[in-house]
């Protein structure tokens, strides 16, 4: 099977984690899949691989030919690398063709940044992926969720987005989708341009 690269949304499986800040990567993947299938029912096909480490789809994204593997790790956040490492090895995908979508405390909700490499800044999902890929040189889409004004970070990231944030989150999901499409169709520089310029109205 010809796969051009891997798009990974980070999060935790289970309904108790739906719509939480730590699951913003999952939410972007869901939006990407829904959008692709809205325009073409055959754009994304589920795949039975991964030994239950991840849910996977083979997707055609944007106008460029070729398919991308879109995955949601089912290993829980701290073991995300098990899923990404397995998928990369299975399809012989280099780290430079992996895009990880993850929540980012150091950016406010409504901002996002596209980059390659760098540290994990305490994000256990990124730490695990670095360990299993054996490199930091994979692409990351940093999706801002902001920091709590008070209380623990661990509680904050596992809290759901509020009703007042719902409209902003929907715009973030669409902005992230456009950034992914830019990467797939035009490459890293265009993805940086589109993603980093995103702002809420």
UniProtKB/TrEMBL annotation:
Top EC class, one word:
hydrolase
Which GO terms label this protein's molecular function in UniProt? peptidyl-tRNA hydrolase activity; tRNA binding
Catalytic reaction list: an N-acyl-L-alpha-aminoacyl-tRNA + H2O = an N-acyl-L-amino acid + a tRNA + H(+)
Report keywords, A-Z: Cytoplasm, Hydrolase, RNA-binding, tRNA-binding
Q: Where does tRNA bind?
A: 17, 76, 78, 124
Cellular compartment(s)? Cytoplasm
Positions annotated as active site in the UniProt record: 22
Q: Which Gene3D superfamilies match?
A: Peptidyl-tRNA hydrolase
Instruction: List the record's Gene Ontology CC terms alphabetically.
Output: cytoplasm
Q: Name one GO biological process term.
A: protein quality control for misfolded or incompletely synthesized proteins
Task: List the HAMAP family.
Answer: Pept_tRNA_hydro_bact (MF_00083)
Q: What does the annotation say about its assembly with partners?
A: Monomer.
State the function annotated in the UniProt record: Catalyzes the release of premature peptidyl moieties from peptidyl-tRNA molecules trapped in stalled 50S ribosomal subunits, and thus maintains levels of free tRNAs and 50S ribosomes. Hydrolyzes ribosome-free peptidyl-tRNAs (with 1 or more amino acids incorporated), which drop off the ribosome during protein synthesis, or as a result of ribosome stalling.
According to UniProt, the name of this protein is Peptidyl-tRNA hydrolase
Protein's organism:
Halodesulfovibrio spirochaetisodalis
The taxonomy runs: Bacteria, Pseudomonadati, Thermodesulfobacteriota, Desulfovibrionia, Desulfovibrionales
Task: Please state the gene responsible for encoding this protein.
Answer: pth
